[in-house]
Prior knowledge:
The chain is α+β, with helices and mostly antiparallel strands. Helices cover about 25% and strands about 45% of the residues. A 3-stranded antiparallel beta sheet has the order 2-1-3, covered by helices on one side.
Amino acid sequence: MSKNYIIKGKMKLKFEWKKFTKTVTAEDDKSAKDKAMSILGGNHGLKRFEVNIESVTEELVKAP
């Protein structure tokens, strides 16, 4: 079952590091990290060494 994860970290854009927060759906936290790196690489043309992930937390889902 897939869960939502909140990924926080920094990415190198031009000559400075910018903070980011990304929400992804994945099976576990390792898959969530890989997915976030893939999304940032695709959108911004970054390599994996230009992305620094600081935290991965599972998003709590509120029951209606």
